[in-house]
Amino acid sequence: MDIRGAIANERVEFAALLDGLTEQQWKAPSLCEGWRVREVAAHMSFGFRTRRGQVLRELLRARGRLHRMTDRCARRDAAAMSEGELAAALRDNARHPWTPPVGGLTAALGHDVVHGLDITVALGHERRVPLERVRLLLEGVTPRSLRFFGADVTGVSLRADDVEWSYGAASGTPVSGAAQDLLLVAFGRALPPGRLRGEAADRFSATTRGRPQGEAGEIRQRP
């Protein structure tokens, strides 16, 4: 797959989706704990809009705590930018070469796809990420990546309904669902109830993980 092309298409498509959101939807909670749709959208384009020197200064200000830095910057930019500006920041940077500190282009695609799902799944939006993009990201799931994002799938066998992919021991308790929902599980997200099936599905539901989605508190690892 042309990963650069997939990244560009994902950004353009998602910018168009953002253009169609209502004012209330922009204020709605996302799957990222403590962030509304506005904060997630602001975070998605932070790497495009911020020079490396500025990022380092922000990190120093946060005393080296990456998640504190990204949280503060997302809240600041979400308050300062209009909805149109937040969407345009993705569209106008569709082919920006930014990548996360580790993971290269695949991680950049994961950043866009997963944060997009943080918004659409929380809103109950019908958008489906093209399966070839989701498949590529699922193929990169490893024990190390699961630990990085705080995803505990011990004793579970994840099985996608719409693409040939599974993860975990065959003897594990089956948890099945759409590939993009299982991708969210692998990135440590708690999903709205009813999106997954299986005896252990509730382990990955927002209603059984303690804090409701959108409530401020300790921030999990974000891609």
Automatic annotation (TrEMBL):
Q: Could you tell me the keywords of this UniProt record?
A: Isomerase
Molecular-function GO terms, alphabetical: isomerase activity
Q: Name one Pfam family in it.
A: MDMPI_N
The membrane spanning regions, by residue number, are none
Q: Region entry Disordered: which residue ranges?
A: 198-223
- The segment(s) forming the Mycothiol-dependent maleylpyruvate isomerase metal-binding domain are 9-95
InterPro entries given for it? DinB/YfiT-like (IPR034660), Maleyloyr_isom (IPR017517), MDMPI_metal-binding (IPR024344)
What name has this protein been given in UniProt? Maleylpyruvate isomerase family mycothiol-dependent enzyme
Print the organism lineage: Bacteria, Bacillati, Actinomycetota, Actinomycetes, Kitasatosporales
